[in-house]
Design goal:
mainly alpha, D-Maltodextrin-Binding Protein, domain 2, 4-stranded mixed sheet, 4 strands
């Protein structure tokens, strides 16, 4: 035990000397949390002030087109800017490409005829929507469906007003029919523990993902450890006093495990207390603090094991740090950190199961967003610990050969 104590002391002293790297491991994740939580704020707020600008050209100039414009101007999160009737499609397209506007609507001259006649099809294209090519498809669909819904309601309302007397004899109530279109779907969030619900927000969804991603950047200092110790003669001196490889590995795991927990505490604290001060949403930690500690510990050990493994299998410092970081970015991409897994192709969703970052993120989400317990994160913990053990066994074998 004395040997292990002095090995741990040596590691802590070396980390303390390289305090700039230690600070970067804290500052960088904190920056991730702040930037991503605040930048994604509008996407998750139910009453966000975020607005999508839409340019509108009314070629129809009818009472129906004016009424429809008044309706869509009242839609939250849409900002309508009308341009002159003489604006052509080419001018409108040029305006979109040269400005911050991503959408445009053209109410064509057939708009009023389409609204008045329910039997009239869409052959004449009453409305044309122009979209800037870089806009995400999901955003396009949301805007398109919202506008189509408003147009359908307006068209139906016009039909009822035109035929009110006849329809009243048939016992058809306009208000009942129109209102029945709205509120058909009710959104209910599904939680593993129904006693307490957590409303999803930007911080609640982004913090776990970037927390996991940042923890694996421990590879930056860890991947160079054995190369540095070999070059400065530390491994040779340790071999001379018969230090076992397992002591070296345990000492490094313990030292960097403390750093990983400090990372977690700092990032969760920023999400809980700092982000709200800057106008963002706060995060909730869930109902199981031990579960949160357990999944954080498993991720930290897995990240450290990965760093030690990369340090041993690489030929030099450049390969260790460079290849290690690139692989982490790839694992983050396929693991759903950067792109949600549900929009990936089926084979990519299956491939994400090989990424430890995916398992780590799901573990955090189980606790922080789904109100899960320790039982719920057992699969994630078992995967992370088992892969850690595999990497540590290989690391131990390779390190023993270097020391001997």
């Amino acid at each position: 035990m004395n040997r292990l104590y002095y090995i741990i002391k040596k590691e802590i002293l070396e980390i303390a000397r390289d305090y700039t790297s230690f600070l970067m491991l804290i500052i960088m994740p904190v920056a991730f949390i702040l930037v991503m939580s605040l930048s994604m704020q509008a996407l998750f707020q139910a009453h966000s002030k975020f607005k999508i600008n839409i340019l509108v050209v009314d070629h129809d100039k009818s009472g129906e087109s004016r009424t429809f414009l008044d309706i869509i101007k009242k839609i939250k999160n849409l900002s309508i800017t009308e341009l002159g009737d003489g604006t052509s499609i080419e001018q409108l397209s040029h305006n979109i490409l040269k400005s911050d506007n991503k959408f445009a609507l053209v109410l064509n001259k057939s708009f009023s005829r389409y609204v008045k006649d329910l039997n009239k099809g869409t052959d004449s294209t009453p409305v044309t929507m122009l979209v800037e090519p870089t806009m995400q498809t999901l955003t396009q669909l949301v805007i398109k469906n919202q506008l189509e819904m408003e147009l359908s309601k307006f068209r139906l309302n016009t039909f009822f007003n035109k035929n009110a007397e006849i329809l009243s004899y048939a016992g058809i109530n306009k208000n009942t029919v129109i209102k029945s279109i709205e509120g058909v779907l009710q959104t209910t969030y599904v939680y593993k523990n129904k006693n307490e619900s957590i409303i999803p927000n930007a911080a609640q969804k982004s913090v776990p993902a970037w927390l996991v991603f940042s923890m694996y950047f421990l590879i930056i200092p860890i991947s160079t450890i054995f190369h540095t110790e070999k070059n400065n003669g530390t491994l040779l001196r340790l071999r001379s006093i018969n230090i076992k490889s397992r002591y070296l590995i345990v000492g490094k795991i313990f030292s960097y495990y403390i750093i990983s927990l400090i990372q977690v505490v700092c990032m969760l604290s920023v999400g809980r207390y700092i982000v709200p001060l800057l106008g963002g949403d706060t995060i909730q930690f869930g109902n199981s603090y031990f579960g949160l500690f357990l999944i954080a510990s498993c991720i930290g050990i897995n990240a450290i094991s990965y760093g030690l493994f990369m340090s041993l299998i690489s030929k030099n410092v450049q390969v260790a740090s460079g290849a290690g970081i690139v692989l982490i970015i790839i694992l983050a991409a396929i693991g759903g950190i950067m792109v949600p897994k549900f929009i990936m192709p089926a084979f990519m969703q299956n491939l994400s199961n090989i990424s430890p970052l995916s398992w780590g993120m799901e573990g955090f989400l189980d606790i922080m967003l789904r109100n899960g317990t320790v039982v719920d994160i057992m699969p994630e913990c078992l995967f992370l610990i088992s892969t850690s053990c595999i990497m540590l066994v290989i690391t131990g074998v390779l390190l023993k050969k270097k020391i001997i």
